[in-house]
Amino acid sequence: MLKEFQEFISKGNVMDLAVGVIIGAAFGKIVTSLVDDIIMPFIGALGGVDFSNYFIGLSHNVTATNLVDARKQGAVFAYGSFVTQVINFLIMAFIIFLMVKAVNNLRKRLEREKPAAAAAPPPADVQLLTEIRDLLAKR
């Protein structure tokens, strides 16, 4: 069983997937920071709107005016956090779209710049038939 596991883990696909998950997690933290620390405060400053503290208390005990304290008091419906996460997702999806588009453009450019491969010589039987045809045509 250990040998099978070693074969499984040494396949390139598994390692590529592991690297992708690790980079994706780090990239997710960057986008979360971008949304939480840069975009949302900017939107809040422009319109006086801070999505992070938009919530509805689901119990009578919730009297706090900010989300952190409200969660300590009881259950809350934190729709502002959801709006922030949706914006986070849209930004991440757009950035990934731009990255995929850039890679596709690079591939297309490399395909155009690649010199055309020399045509493979025809098989021996086709070559022989071509020579026979040319000899018959000379007669």
Automatic annotation (TrEMBL):
<keyword id="KW-0472">Membrane</keyword>
<comment type="function">
    <text>Channel that opens in response to stretch forces in the membrane lipid bilayer. May participate in the regulation of osmotic pressure changes within the cell.</text>
</comment>
<comment type="subunit">
    <text>Homopentamer.</text>
</comment>
<keyword id="KW-0813">Transport</keyword>
<feature type="transmembrane region" description="Helical">
    <location>
        <begin position="12"/>
        <end position="31"/>
    </location>
</feature>
<comment type="similarity">
    <text>Belongs to the MscL family.</text>
</comment>
<dbReference type="InterPro" id="IPR037673">
    <property type="entry name" value="MSC/AndL"/>
</dbReference>
<dbReference type="Pfam" id="PF01741">
    <property type="entry name" value="MscL"/>
</dbReference>
<feature type="transmembrane region" description="Helical">
    <location>
        <begin position="76"/>
        <end position="100"/>
    </location>
</feature>
<keyword id="KW-0997">Cell inner membrane</keyword>
<dbReference type="InterPro" id="IPR001185">
    <property type="entry name" value="MS_channel"/>
</dbReference>
<keyword id="KW-0812">Transmembrane</keyword>
<keyword id="KW-0406">Ion transport</keyword>
<keyword id="KW-1133">Transmembrane helix</keyword>
<dbReference type="InterPro" id="IPR019823">
    <property type="entry name" value="Mechanosensitive_channel_CS"/>
</dbReference>
<keyword id="KW-0407">Ion channel</keyword>
<dbReference type="InterPro" id="IPR036019">
    <property type="entry name" value="MscL_channel"/>
</dbReference>
<keyword id="KW-1003">Cell membrane</keyword>
<protein>
    <recommendedName>
        <fullName>Large-conductance mechanosensitive channel</fullName>
    </recommendedName>
</protein>
